[in-house]
């Protein structure tokens, strides 16, 4: 704007322009002539909120919060009679009385509903662009300098947006040479429907009989799903069994899953389309439909969408109709080519796995050869081609850019570390005959999943508190066994009067609950299922438990003998949670018939990360020699072998100590097929006590020797050692260079010239008592201190009092001061060089320890800490190098680097760098994962002089735990020598 002569070059003159209310200027620009500088002010304000770029997928989906907020704004514009968004904002501004404008809430563009925004509004790019054209054209009618070319330049600057990267489709899991099909493809929709239907069975809840769907029933449900977006199980039962519908439940039906998805693509089209469009869709061939769907699920705007449809010779009227159709935009795991081969079999009611076998698809690793056992295992993407996706941009990761990667970062990192560890072990010890995996971490959770887990944890905490209160009132010990009894008792029924033994029907009251008369029964016998989980437990009377013995409910009571009524038992069982109801079915034990299959299932974790890691390890030891186990399995053996107490007192896993992973690895390594079979045999022989007689890990095992070995483990940490110079060359950084908040300068620190006081604004209702002490305005500070003195103890009351005071005194925010090192504050200057604000550095990157004069024997070590911001500057060099050209660097320490030093007892000790601040490096014990309050307070703070006196050196621990201390030599991880 300055180059075009619109803004004055003088800073003071510009400041005067920017003091003007931009909303008034935007409204005024529609009808009156503005000076170039004033018009420029209006344009700059408009450019700050240029609106959401129209996305037909979002706008066509009326259920999204964003689309609702966009519609709200359109409605508001009409109600206010505003020609533009700027005029609307000016009208809103004038609604507030002048004496209250300082306290009024500014109009916020949000699409999330909250207390402050009960009806959120959000502008589209079109609304802002329309205002730009209107005010520019009006001003052009007054002043000839606003030419069409000038207008186009400014429009491009404000509104041009780089196109989004295309969505990566990924490779088909069965035919990796083909791309995955979009879920909106008709073949995928049919595949998903058939996959559900072919697995669908019904259970008569009173007889326990499993009912397979006949061809007519299958066809009826298929027709129902094809012609609906979704169908509830209740609707499906009613269509099949009419008046007897409530006698049945489907095997796929749970509290969480109450419906099956239908043909979402056809229903999305038919809900928007006219008869002409529907007829065109029916007549279009598969290739044309696939190309049209790829355009429909793209991020193309309206005009390019219509152009692409025109290139397919889709009639313009039909393309316009399809423009508003909202289809599923994700991709499945299979390609169109694979679907075409599978679906004919599935139309004949063949399940997916059988259809794969019929077509000869090998996706289980049967054809993998063990050929990478010499420490030469390559990057996983080179081998697991079915699991990876190609990248649509260069990431500077040579392997991933060449071979693709698994999209989930947790899995990607885990497999890279697995490659490094396995190759190191193979080089040291040779190729392994067997590999057992236990992967504790699952995939990263979405925000909603995290919220759901957090909510469930809070609910469980609340339930436990209520249970503990109940136990106290009934004079019972608060322990696991009593808690479990109460939990099982409560889940029988919400009403205490209806809590009855499922087998006998007799009421279980609170007075009998803790007596020997009430026992915990394994619904399905633990001697055959090896299941000791809460999902397999229920409360019952002692007599019923003795009668049932080691039998399933059906085996014990299914024939309604000896006073037990199976139909009544089934009816009462329907009140139980889903994970227990199915155990009362007649065929509940079928999945446990084959003991070898059950043991194989115990040995193989089905989670995604475990499955992918197993496939990767097939290339090292072969498919038959690789399996994975669950954390539950290792927890059982850890407890039975007494290994939990190796790192802590009591029988609980010490997660605050990194060495618990080594204990898990020890248990995992000993988990052989024969071990699991031995446990299964022990379970069968021990009916009353569950796996009490687990044999020792191996002959001659010594718990004391094991503890000694665990306590001498050197825990390896991955150092955080980014290269800022290389990252800067790629327009990347190693982290945030500065914090988001801007600060003002208050005054220097007269006691220490390396520090100063800065100011920041805090909303009045967000102040803490400590913040009030730091308020700069003395009058406000005294007034709020008086409120703090009368503070009653409840945070909500204190917040309300502050808010009321702020409203009464027309104060929304207050300035508070804080002390900070000048080295951590980044000044921001205007063109004249005047500093007008500061940002705080985004953190410290490393500490350099150096000697000013290495020739002086009395010279002591000193330290310079370099911030993230400083390290990323193009001409960066540590200040000590500039000040002392002949100085010598002793070591550079990043977070998680290992430091070896001689402790007070004269023994070399290893610590990891936790953080660095001021003149201090914080060194934490290498085995500590999280320092808890009950841990011994061991010295962690070391200044450079203390490090020098302790003969400190930068050390290393490799992935196998081998230590290298430059002042003590190497330490073998096996022998300790």
Question: Between the first and last Cα atoms, what is the distance in angstroms?
Answer: 72 Å
Helix and strand content put the structural class at alpha+beta
Amount of helix: 40-55%
Oligomer: single chain
Strand content: 5-15%
Strand line-up in the sheet with most strands: 21-20-19-18-22-23-24
Describe the structure.
With 977 residues, this protein is an alpha+beta fold. The chain has 42 helices and 24 strands. The strands form 7 sheets. Strands 21-20-19-18-22-23-24 form a 7-stranded antiparallel sheet. A hairpin with a 5-residue loop joins strand 1 and strand 2. Helix 2 crosses helix 3, helix 9 packs parallel to helix 17 and helix 30 packs across helix 34. It is globular. It starts with 10 loop residues before the first helix and ends in a 6-residue tail after the last strand. About 1% of the residues have low confidence.
């Amino acid at each position: 704007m300055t180059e075009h002569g619109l803004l004055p070059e003088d800073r003071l003159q510009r400041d005067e322009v920017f003091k003007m209310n931009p909303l008034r200027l935007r409204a005024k620009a529609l009808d009156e002539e503005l000076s170039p500088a004033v018009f420029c002010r209006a344009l700059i304000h408009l450019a700050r909120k240029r609106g959401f770029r129209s996305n037909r997928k979002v706008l066509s989906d009326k259920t999204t919060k964003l689309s609702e907020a966009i519609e709200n704004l359109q409605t508001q514009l009409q109600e206010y009679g505003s020609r533009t968004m700027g005029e609307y904002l000016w009208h809103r501004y004038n609604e507030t009385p002048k004496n209250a404008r300082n306290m009024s809430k500014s109009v916020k563009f949000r699409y999330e509903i909250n207390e402050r925004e009960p009806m959120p509004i959000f502008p589209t790019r079109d609304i802002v662009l329309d205002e730009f054209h209107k005010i520019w054209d009006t001003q052009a009618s007054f002043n000839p300098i606003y030419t069409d070319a000038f207008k186009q330049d400014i429009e491009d600057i404000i509104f041009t947006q780089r196109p989004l990267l295309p969505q990566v489709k990924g490779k088909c899991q069965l035919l990796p040479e083909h791309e995955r099909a979009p879920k909106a493809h008709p073949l995928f929709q049919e595949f998903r429907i058939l996959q559900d239907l072919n697995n669908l069975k019904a259970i008569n809840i009173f007889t326990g009989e499993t009912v397979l769907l006949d061809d007519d029933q299958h066809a009826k449900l298929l027709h129902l799903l094809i012609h609906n977006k979704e169908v509830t199980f209740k609707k499906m039962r009613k269509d099949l069994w009419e008046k007897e519908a409530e006698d049945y439940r489907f095997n796929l039906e749970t509290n969480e899953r109450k419906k099956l998805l239908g043909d979402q693509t056809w229903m999305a089209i038919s809900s928007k389309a006219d008869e002409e469009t529907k007829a065109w869709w029916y007549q279009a061939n598969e290739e044309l439909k696939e190309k049209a769907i790829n355009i429909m699920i793209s991020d193309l705007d309206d005009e390019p969408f219509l152009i692409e449809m025109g290139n397919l010779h889709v009639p313009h009227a039909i393309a316009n109709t399809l423009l508003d159709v909202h289809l599923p935009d994700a991709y499945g795991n299979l390609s169109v080519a694979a679907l075409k081969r599978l679906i004919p079999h599935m139309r004949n009611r063949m399940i997916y796995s059988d259809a794969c076998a019929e077509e000869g698809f090998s996706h289980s690793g049967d054809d993998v050869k063990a050929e990478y056992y010499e420490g030469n295992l390559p990057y996983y993407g080179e081998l697991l081609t079915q699991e990876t996706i190609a990248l649509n941009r260069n990431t500077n990761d040579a392997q991933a850019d060449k071979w693709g990667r698994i999209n989930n970062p947790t899995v990607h990192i885990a497999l890279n570390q697995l490659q490094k560890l396995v190759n190191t072990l193979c080089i040291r010890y040779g190729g392994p005959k067997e590999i057992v995996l236990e992967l504790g971490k699952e995939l990263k959770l979405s925000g909603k999943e995290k919220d759901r887990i957090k909510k469930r944890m809070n609910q469980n905490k609340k339930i436990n508190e209520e249970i503990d209160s109940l136990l106290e009132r009934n004079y019972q010990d608060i322990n696991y066994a009593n808690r479990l009894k109460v939990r099982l008792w409560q889940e029988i029924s919400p009403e205490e009067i209806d809590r009855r033994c499922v087998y006998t029907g007799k009421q279980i009251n609170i007075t009998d609950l803790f007596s020997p008369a009430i026992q915990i029964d394994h619904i399905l016998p633990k001697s055959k299922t090896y299941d000791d989980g809460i999902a397999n437990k229920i409360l019952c009377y002692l007599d019923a438990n003795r009668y049932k013995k080691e039998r399933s409910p059906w085996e014990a009571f299914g024939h309604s003998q000896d006073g037990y009524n199976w139909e009544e038992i089934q009816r009462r069982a329907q009140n139980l949670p889903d994970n227990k109801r199915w155990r009362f079915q007649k065929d509940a034990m079928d999945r446990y018939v084959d003991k070898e299959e059950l043991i194989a299932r115990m040995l193989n974790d089905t989670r995604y990360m475990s499955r992918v890691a197993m496939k990767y390890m097939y290339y090292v030891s072969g498919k038959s020699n690789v399996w994975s186990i669950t954390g539950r399995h290792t927890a059982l053996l850890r407890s039975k072998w007494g290994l939990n107490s190796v790192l802590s007192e009591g029988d609980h896993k010490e997660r605050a100590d990194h060495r618990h992973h080594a204990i898990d690895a020890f248990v995992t390594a000993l988990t052989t097929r024969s071990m699991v079979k031995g446990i299964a045999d022990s379970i069968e022989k021990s009916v009353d006590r569950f796996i009490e007689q687990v044999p020792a890990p191996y002959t001659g095992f010594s718990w004391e020797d094991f503890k000694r070995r665990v306590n001498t483990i050197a825990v390896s940490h991955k150092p955080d050692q980014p290269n800022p110079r290389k990252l800067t060359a790629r327009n990347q950084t190693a982290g945030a260079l500065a914090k988001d908040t801007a600060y003002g300068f208050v005054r220097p620190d007269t006691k220490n010239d390396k520090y100063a006081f800065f100011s920041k604004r805090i909303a009045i209702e967000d102040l803490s008592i400590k913040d009030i002490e730091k308020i700069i305005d003395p009058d406000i500070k005294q007034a709020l201190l008086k409120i703090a003195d009368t503070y009653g103890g409840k945070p909500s009351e204190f917040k309300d009092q502050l808010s009321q005071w702020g409203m009464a005194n027309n104060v929304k925010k207050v300035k508070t001061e804080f002390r900070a090192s000048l080295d951590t504050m980044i000044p921001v200057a205007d063109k004249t060089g005047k500093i007008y604000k500061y940002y705080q550095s985004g953190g410290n990157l490393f500490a350099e320890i150096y000697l000013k004069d290495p020739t002086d024997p009395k010279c002591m070590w000193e330290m310079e800490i370099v911030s993230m911001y400083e390290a990323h500057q193009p001409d960066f060099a540590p200040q000590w190098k500039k000040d002392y050209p002949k100085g010598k660097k002793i070591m550079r320490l990043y977070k998680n680097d290992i430091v070896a030093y001689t402790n007070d007892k004269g023994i070399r000790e290893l610590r990891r760098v936790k953080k660095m601040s001021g003149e201090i490096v914080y060194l934490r014990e290498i085995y500590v994962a999280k320092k808890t309050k009950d841990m011994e307070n061991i010295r962690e703070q070391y200044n450079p002089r203390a490090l020098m006196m302790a003969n400190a050196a930068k050390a290393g621990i490799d992935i196998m735990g081998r230590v290298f201390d430059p002042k003590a030599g190497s330490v073998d991880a096996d022998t300790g020598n």
